[in-house]
Amino acid sequence: MALPRMWLSPLASGVDVFFRDTILNRARRPERVAHADRKKALLEAIDATVEPWMFDDRERFFPLRPVVSPERRRGRSIVPGEVLELRWKSEFEPIYEENRALFAKLERNGRARARIIRRDPEHPRPTLLLVHGFMGGAPDLEERLFPVRELFAAGYDLAIATLPGHGGRKDGGRFDRPRWPAHGPRFTIDGYRQAISDLRALVHHLRDEGAPAVGALGMSLGGYTSALLATVEPRLDAVIPFVPLASMAQYMFENGQLPGTREEQLELRELVDVLFSPASPTARPVLVPHAGRKVVAGKVDRITPVSHASRLARHFGVAVETFEGGHLLQWGKTAALLSAIERSRASFAARRP
User: Fold this and answer.
1) pTM for the full model?
2) What is the CA radius of gyration of the chain?
């Protein structure tokens, strides 16, 4: 029996709050540190982490490392297309010295992965690169979280990427949390650098194999990552962050993870924003054509609220588009996404080299 419409928004909001508070934000006993000491520590971390060239030299900070000698095997999908499971070595080098040993230990993370679904491999169509959220990454699951049947029927081939430390790239136990984003700002920044390196490689691989255009559709953490990709990769034709994370500092502020008075929290939020800025999707100009930029948010999202989508939309120079549901129970997402993608067709049609 279908739930009454009036119950849908409260239910979606409640599910988000439960998951946020019990899974994502497991309670930690706050350290008793004076605000002045916290501020000093953040300033020292910024000085050790953030350098001007990271913003001025995009290609050096997010180098393109093409797909080389990939492993290919046939796969299966709920979509009636030809399925290819692609694996290749993630040619990534951490920029922070202490991360080299940490990433070297993550053996499964060293192989990038993507599931590619095409109607006709001899005649590739515009391709949507689907980028999953935190704790996701298994293609069989992502095919049920993204409206893949509808996207495929609308005229797009699909590529389902796996982010670092997720899905088949996750080291540790099956039910362990992903190790990235985690372990502090410098590890998190290097993880985004690996994610962008792998996604850039995939975009170029798809284009080199004949895809007339490639767009990125990212959910939650994938929304953040796809938005970051749009500021780095000039061969990306469209980008649609969906229920996106936009700022680690904003997430911490909104979830009570910054201590002190409101004024002190605001000051810490600004410093944390600067600390994560080398891997921020709002730190560099957007390279995707304006017609190909869309941002979609859930009206009752309580994990990455509309405030996050608004932040990205301001940077993109577009308005936020919304649907009725939340972050996990996404009532109305399919219609909203299909509408956003349809209005991006002009950007897909204008093929770039």
Assistant:
1) 0.94
2) 20
